[in-house]
């Protein structure tokens, strides 16, 4: 089973290296970390009290009443996603002038000065050398009413698995399109990532989208070009399932910082002649916070793992459901291991608890880091997420050219995990316009809705089938969504309905969701 992404470069709230440990290294007196026995922290609130406090805090919001939202930044390769985010962080005072100058100098030295803003987000040497984002970059900023966690996704089709991992942690999407001649079309045509990203995020439950029509400086702030792009995108967005009221557009130029925070100054003069609408930041400030399922059992799919200080291991992800506090013991699925939360970090601050909808880092102790993997789920020990190897799902087939038949090999994406599988049975199709059901179809073609059975393949040479921690859509929406890919192309999105569970002891605590059969 392969993890979709590499360790996060800049985890929210990542700690500085432990100075005491560094001193020991310097003196050649380093003690084995396993010898340092730390007393794990204890929980401070009873469960009812914790839920009361979480409910109250979420109602009033954090940091002077700000509500948190998770925003995935999507779009075709080179649309300007990282530049937009880098520039926005600077305009919002999240990037020091000296850091900006350092990026400008260093990118200039490499002959890549046009990427100097993107360097704020694209932190690895390889990304900077190639001028492409490869993995999800995490960052955050505040608007007057929102605390926005941003997940800057790669645009290149080779890195779609990383993009899926980012999108599955998001509540809203910021789509960046390149307005320059021919470039919008290249991204929007079949095979471009504009369409694919939009379909993917919508299938993963994202229902709000803000579109930044970028690089308008390149086309001389041509109003008709802006309108042409809005007119082309709007019907597609509606068709993909976004509601009209949840779609917003803003004309911008990320590179020169026009209409991000304001459009004052000479660079914004042309735009001011024909645009009086909101700035990009004003649109982001109105994003609706997600519905938070804090009373369901705790579920936390791990999207990144890194070494924290001392004996703790940092795991980053978005809480799908429930709430936890420091000192709580969590079960790691798959496997039989438990760990204890030593510390919780949100937007760089240590916080006492984390709840559904928040992207946080949990520093886990009392567990060997070998058991903490990208794609694993941390969950409440009293309500363990079941493991499944065969299940049925209702899928919507995307715009494919080669039909799906029984036996088709696929890659199954669930949060940050991709697993080899195959479509073992075609159960039925439903005509989406007439509602007519057809049993046992022979093939599935584009646009169909179908019930299929999916079986995970066996792990290379072991003969033992893979299993994934999942729940039916009815039990937990965020744990019940799946994307199906074949040969680097996303061919369908689905919802789990029925799990054939692994026998005890592999699936401790799991229950058949027979209600979903009806
Ligand atoms: N003229 C102009 N160029 C821009 C603007 N925004 C971005 N660019 C340029 O477009 C190129 C690509 O920008 P990136 O920010 O790396 O694009 P990206 O979408 O993050 O790319 P990937 O993440 O690799 O898909 C860079 O050379 C930027 O300088 C803009 O508003 N105007």
Automatic annotation (TrEMBL):
<dbReference type="InterPro" id="IPR050100">
    <property type="entry name" value="TRAFAC_GTPase_members"/>
</dbReference>
<comment type="subunit">
    <text>Component of the Dom34-Hbs1 complex, also named Pelota-HBS1L complex, composed of dom34 and hbs1.</text>
</comment>
<comment type="similarity">
    <text>Belongs to the TRAFAC class translation factor GTPase superfamily. Classic translation factor GTPase family. EF-Tu/EF-1A subfamily.</text>
</comment>
<dbReference type="InterPro" id="IPR054696">
    <property type="entry name" value="GTP-eEF1A_C"/>
</dbReference>
<dbReference type="GO" id="GO:0005829">
    <property type="term" value="C:cytosol"/>
</dbReference>
<keyword id="KW-0648">Protein biosynthesis</keyword>
<keyword id="KW-0547">Nucleotide-binding</keyword>
<keyword id="KW-0342">GTP-binding</keyword>
<dbReference type="InterPro" id="IPR027417">
    <property type="entry name" value="P-loop_NTPase"/>
</dbReference>
<dbReference type="InterPro" id="IPR000795">
    <property type="entry name" value="T_Tr_GTP-bd_dom"/>
</dbReference>
<dbReference type="Pfam" id="PF00009">
    <property type="entry name" value="GTP_EFTU"/>
</dbReference>
<dbReference type="GO" id="GO:0005525">
    <property type="term" value="F:GTP binding"/>
</dbReference>
<keyword id="KW-0963">Cytoplasm</keyword>
<dbReference type="GO" id="GO:1990533">
    <property type="term" value="C:Dom34-Hbs1 complex"/>
</dbReference>
<dbReference type="Pfam" id="PF22594">
    <property type="entry name" value="GTP-eEF1A_C"/>
</dbReference>
<feature type="domain" description="Tr-type G">
    <location>
        <begin position="66"/>
        <end position="292"/>
    </location>
</feature>
<dbReference type="GO" id="GO:0002184">
    <property type="term" value="P:cytoplasmic translational termination"/>
</dbReference>
<dbReference type="InterPro" id="IPR009001">
    <property type="entry name" value="Transl_elong_EF1A/Init_IF2_C"/>
</dbReference>
<protein>
    <recommendedName>
        <fullName>Elongation factor 1 alpha-like protein</fullName>
    </recommendedName>
</protein>
<dbReference type="GO" id="GO:0003924">
    <property type="term" value="F:GTPase activity"/>
</dbReference>
<keyword id="KW-0378">Hydrolase</keyword>
<dbReference type="InterPro" id="IPR009000">
    <property type="entry name" value="Transl_B-barrel_sf"/>
</dbReference>
């Amino acid at each position: 089973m392969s993890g979709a992404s590499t360790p996060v470069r800049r985890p929210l709230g990542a700690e500085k290296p432990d100075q005491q440990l560094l001193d020991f290294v310097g003196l050649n007196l380093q003690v084995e970390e396993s010898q340092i026995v730390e007393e794990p922290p204890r929980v401070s609130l009873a469960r009812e009290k914790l839920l009361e406090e979480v409910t109250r805090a979420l109602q009033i919001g954090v940091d002077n009443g700000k509500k948190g939202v998770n925003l995935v930044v999507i779009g075709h390769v080179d649309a300007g996603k990282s530049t937009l985010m880098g520039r926005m962080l600077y305009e919002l005072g999240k990037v020091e002038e000296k850091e900006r100058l350092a990026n400008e100098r260093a990118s200039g030295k490499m002959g890549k000065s046009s990427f100097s803003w993107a360097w704020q987000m694209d932190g690895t040497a390889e990304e900077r050398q190639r001028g492409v984002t490869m993995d999800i970059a995490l960052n955050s900023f505040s608007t007057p009413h929102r605390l926005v966690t941003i997940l800057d996704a790669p645009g290149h089709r080779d890195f779609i698995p990383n993009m899926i991992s980012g999108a599955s942690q998001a509540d809203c999407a910021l789509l960046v399109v390149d307005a320059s001649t021919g470039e919008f079309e290249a991204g929007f045509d079949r095979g471009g990532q504009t369409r694919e990203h939009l379909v993917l995020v919508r299938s993963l439950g994202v229902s709000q989208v803000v579109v930044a029509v970028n690089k308008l400086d390149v086309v001389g702030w041509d109003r008709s070009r802006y309108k042409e792009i809005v007119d082309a995108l709007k019907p597609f967005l509606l068709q993909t399932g976004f509601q009209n009221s949840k779609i917003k557009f803003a004309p911008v130029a990320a590179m020169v910082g026009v209409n991000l925070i304001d459009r004052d100054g000479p660079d914004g003069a042309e735009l001011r002649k024909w645009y009086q609408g909101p700035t990009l930041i004003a649109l982001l400030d109105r994003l609706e916070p997600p519905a938070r399922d804090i009373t369901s059992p705790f579920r936390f799919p791990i999207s990144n793992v890194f070494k924290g200080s001392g004996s703790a291991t940092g795991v980053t992800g978005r809480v799908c459901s429930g709430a936890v506090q420091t000192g709580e013991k969590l079960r790691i699925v798959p496997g039989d291991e438990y760990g204890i939360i030593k510390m919780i970090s949100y937007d760089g601050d240590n916080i006492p608890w984390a709840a559904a909808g928040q992207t946080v880092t949990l520093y886990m102790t009392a567990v060997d880091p070998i058991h903490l993997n990208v794609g694993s789920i941390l969950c409440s020990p009293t309500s363990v997420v079941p493991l499944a190897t065969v299940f049925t799902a209702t899928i919507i087939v995307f715009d494919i050219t080669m039909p799906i038949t029984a036996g088709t090999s696929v890659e199954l994406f669930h949060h940050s995990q991709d697993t080899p599988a195959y479509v073992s049975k075609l159960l039925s199709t439903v005509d989406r316009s007439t509602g007519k059901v057809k049993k046992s179809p022979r093939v599935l073609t584009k646009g169909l809705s179908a019930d299929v059975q999916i079986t995970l393949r066996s792990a290379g040479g072991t003969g033992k089938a893979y299993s994934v921690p999942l729940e039916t859509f009815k039990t937990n929406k965020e744990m019940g969504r799946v994307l199906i890919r074949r040969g680097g192309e996303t061919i369908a999105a689905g919802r789990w309905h029925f799990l054939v569970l692994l026998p005890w002891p592999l699936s401790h605590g799991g229950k058949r969701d027979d209600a979903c059969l009806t």
